[in-house]
């Protein structure tokens, strides 16, 4: 796979997940870190997002796994928070660093099969793009615009088809006018992640203005 954007702790953790049959049969790796590591190499990402669409998170299974691997990873303490079906675990290492790992019940079936790495399922670029459209429509951050911008530098997905896929996946339509309004806000956010590849924020803003204009037919059809 070549150069990695993962920290040693992230890499070691994912390798151990791949060795755990009860996890790899249910969970897949997604989110910004998966996007950066397996597709774009464009930025640093700190969290590990492991989603399951099959059943609710089995807390006892996850915590038994984390306890089992703690000594091997040099974890001195684990803290936890929870919101509905999302379980956030914070691994505090003896070297003073930390790793946030999210186990999330995400009952939205993936549209495309992704890839596999060391037994671990990796979300597809298309599904991550669909997720980004949904996030930008509902509660965007700077990193979501940056991620979608770099996704489009790699692959020119048809935006109207992405909207259809978003409705199919989440069983809820994305309002074209609302999405266009959000895309026009791309330059407003200042919480940029640490970048590996350079980008011009003004060029990104213009890109999303053009992308928003492609929704005009959908808007007028309403």
Q: Describe it for me?
A:
Helix 3 (31-40) runs parallel beside helix 6 (142-154) and helix 5 crosses helix 7. The chain is 47% helix and 18% strand. Strands 3-4-5-2-1-7-6 form a seven-stranded mixed beta sheet. It has helices at 8-18, 21-24, 31-40, 59-73, 125-138, 142-154, 159-170, 176-183, 201-213, 216-220, and strands spanning 27-30, 48-52, 75-83, 86-93, 98-105, 115-117, 120-122. The protein is globular.
Question: Keywords, please?
Answer:
about 45% helix; single chain; alpha/beta; about 220 residues; seven-stranded mixed beta sheet; globular; Nuclear Transport Factor 2, Chain: A; 2 domains
Strand-helix topology:
Layout: H1 8-18, H2 21-24, E1 27-30, H3 31-40, E2 48-52, H4 59-73, E3 75-83, E4 86-93, E5 98-105, E6 115-117, E7 120-122, H5 125-138, H6 142-154, H7 159-170, H8 176-183, H9 201-213, H10 216-220
Parallel strand pairs: 1-7, 2-5
Antiparallel strand pairs: 1-2, 3-4, 4-5, 6-7
Helix pairs in contact: 3-6, 5-6, 5-7, 8-9
| CATH architecture verdict of the largest domain | Roll
CATH class of the largest domain: Alpha Beta
Q: State the share of residues found in helices, binned by percent.
A: 40-55%
Taken as a percent bin, the fraction of beta residues is 15-25%
CATH topology of the largest domain: Nuclear Transport Factor 2, Chain: A
| Termini Cα gap | 45 Å
Structural class: alpha/beta
Q: Strand arrangement, largest sheet?
A: 3-4-5-2-1-7-6
Q: How many H/I helices?
A: 10
**Element string (H = helix, E = strand):** HHEHEHEEEEEHHHHHH
Silhouette: globular
CATH homologous superfamily assignment of the largest domain: JHP933, nucleotidyltransferase-like core domain
Return the average pLDDT rounded to an integer: 96
The radius of gyration is 18 Å
Total beta-strand segments: 7
Number of domains: 2
Low-confidence sequence ranges: none
